[in-house]
Amino acid sequence: MDQKKFEVLAPAGDPERLNAALDYGADAVYLGGKTFGMRAGPKNFTYDELKSAAELSHSRNVRVYLTCNTLPRNNEIPYFRQFIEEAVSCGVDAVIVADLGLLSLVKKYAPDMEVHMSTQTGIVNYETANSLYNMGVKRIVAARELSIDEIAEIRAKTPAELDIEAFVHGAMCMSFSGRCLLSQYLTNRDANRGECAQPCRWSYHLMEETRKGEFFPVFEDEKGSYILNAKDLCMIDHLDKLAEAGVKSFKIEGRAKSSYYVSIVTNAYRMAVDILENSKGEYNIPDWIKDEVFKVSHRNYCTGFFFGHPDDCQYYENSGYIREYDVAAIIEDCRGGMIYATQRNCFKKGDTVEIVSPKAHFDVLTVEKLYDGDGNEIECANHAMMKLMIPCEKSYPLNSIIRIKK
User: I need a labelling partner for 160 at 20 to 30 A (CA). Which of 130, 145, 198, 386 fits?
Assistant: First the structure.
């Protein structure tokens, strides 16, 4: 294994999730401003927040990539110059672009800005990759429809200076490289402008034209069928194969996901990549690290197109998430044999909890005593965001997570 540096690239939908990514080991984060990004749902970042995010990230040796990966219409183009000039002044390290016109404008208005070409571009061959490199692109994000072998061929037939990034974890779109029209047709919310309503997750029935009101299941039962519902991607077992194919950056999907999701998944891939970089030809991850990605809200997992045509990437029973753990509290301080934390979900004295810290096996703790913020002993932490104290001799870093199995 070539002992080069790999990158764990984590999502940051807002400042809270940015901090989660930083605390739990991201090498780089990707985030959006208030315009030109593919995720309109998260809060995203104002100019001042983006500037602060870049300063904080750089102080911790983490790179910042700004998304401008929508497909903008004519009336939006005049506003792009201000957007990209503000990105430069904020100090972001790169912009993620999907549109060739925006690529040319980045080169015009910010010639020194590093450009990453988004997965929405649909890069599936080395000729496209080489053309983009010749246009000044530093990195391509491989289309999610590519196999590992196809990525390896792109790597072999492109300049070494062109980085390859690939999604390794998170939700998948049923359309080619995320270019879906369902949402726009059915809800007038354009997925290619960050407003996807996710109609692929809906349950559908079939109705015959002359039998109006008489519904027929497309699949097995009266509940209908989730015929378009994709499983989530998980490649934590196979990072060595992606690395051998030439992938430098391992990207985690989830700018709309919770800070808990960002913390746990980033932490798992951080530890996995550390093992990968220190491996001597064998990539073996302890089961407990693999299990971490099952302790966040997720759909059933698959490996996408990486190993050829996917036979098991659709889930027909429902579109719901599997969620077996709740965040009980977030640790703010540890001193004098006491954990000081803020409650997130109800838990009580006698419960067994897990405490998660960066780059470490979680600890198991039975809450034998529980106190409110004033030091009064209580039976249950059942008030949202209440301050609380738990006796514990071990100290944990700021923002360590106390979670409980549901």
Answer: 145
